[in-house]
Specification:
Blueprint: H1 3-21, H2 24-39, H3 42-45, E1 57-59, E2 65-67, H4 68-72
Antiparallel strand pairs: 1-2
């Protein structure tokens, strides 16, 4: 079994358990949330692997500002 198949099996098992044990209003809220994501095309609009990210700055663990462009100068970055 591949890693992807294993993950898919795990997700399906958890969804089945949720449907068995969750109250109907929670199941309905979950379904509504999934429908909203589908209607908004959230997945289709998401940044895809390999896309170029805009430059930005954030504080590092010690509070110093770090820019993406500076880190990219050192090599590839995974976000």
């Amino acid at each position: 079994m591949s890693e992807e198949e294993s993950l898919t099996s795990t997700i399906e098992a958890r969804k089945a358990e949720f449907r068995k044990s969750a109250p109907p209003e929670k199941i309905a809220a979950y379904a509504d949330g999934i429908e909203a994501v589908v209607k908004a095309q959230t997945v289709e609009k998401a940044v895809q692997a390999g896309a170029k990210a805009p430059d930005f700055a954030l504080p590092d663990a010690s509070g110093a500002e770090v820019r993406l462009s500076e880190i990219l100068a050192e090599g590839p970055v995974v976000l």
